[in-house]
Amino acid sequence: MSYGADPSVHTSLGLITCDQDDSTYVALDEATKHAAVDVVFARSFYAGADHASGALSGEILGVLAGPDPDEVREGMTAAIRCLEHDACFYAANDAGTIAVFPHVIASLGHYLSAEAGLEAGTAMAYLVAPPMEHSIALDAALKAADVTAAKLFAPPTETNYAGAFLGGEQSSCEAAAEAYARAVVEVGCRPRT
């Protein structure tokens, strides 16, 4: 997921890395709703945070660009606030070895709306889990609510997960995300070995 910078508009940059890539994509989108910034680069690293290339590498590198340092700083503040208080993965089993990201964005910014092919300001369920769990849970999500699959991330992604963007009314996206999370937890708590 990335865009290019426009030197006639983007004179300042802010770089962010984190050990949760999907949370950071959401945070970058949040930045576009609070400041005159664009996401000019956002990319997950291969194999995830546990195999990062350095102590500060994390699982993703995101770059915000704007017309001046104040706008970029405002965007970075919004992104960090989102990471600290809103968007995160959850443990889907007692051992904490299965993670799930059943996040609902009530109003898309211009970054993720473009990535998903949905209108800015509309709701979206952003769903991520390990491949097998995701496949079962996505089926449950699509059956649980009046949502459409806007974009699918087939396994394996860079971090060996799978994901989907589902569009619809906010209440439908929430119902889909809840069904998705429930299904991932059910698979995680009762694996057949």
Proportion of residues in β-strands: 25-35%
CATH architecture of the largest domain: 2-Layer Sandwich
Name the average pLDDT. 93
Count of helical stretches: 5
Helix content: 25-40%
The biggest sheet amounts to: 5 strands, antiparallel
Residue stretches low in confidence (pLDDT < 50, at least 5 long) are none
Distance between the termini: 36 Å
Number of strands: 8
Task: Determine the CATH superfamily of the largest domain.
Answer: BMC (bacterial microcompartment) domain
Q: Which fold name fills CATH's third level, the topology of the largest domain?
A: Alpha-Beta Plaits
**What is the succession of H and E elements?**
EHEEHEEHEHEEH
Written overview of the protein:
With 193 residues, the chain is an alpha+beta fold. The protein has 2 domains: 74 residues, BMC (bacterial microcompartment) domain (Alpha-Beta Plaits), CATH 3.30.70.1710; 100 residues, Alpha-Beta Plaits, CATH 3.30.70.1710. The chain is 37% helix and 26% strand. The protein contains 5 helices and 8 strands. The strands form 2 sheets. A 5-stranded antiparallel β-sheet has the order 4-5-6-8-7, sandwiched between helices. A 3-stranded antiparallel β-sheet has the order 1-3-2, with helices on one face. The longest helix is centred in the C-terminal third of the chain and has 20 residues. It is globular. The N and C termini lie far apart (36 Å). The mean pLDDT is 93.
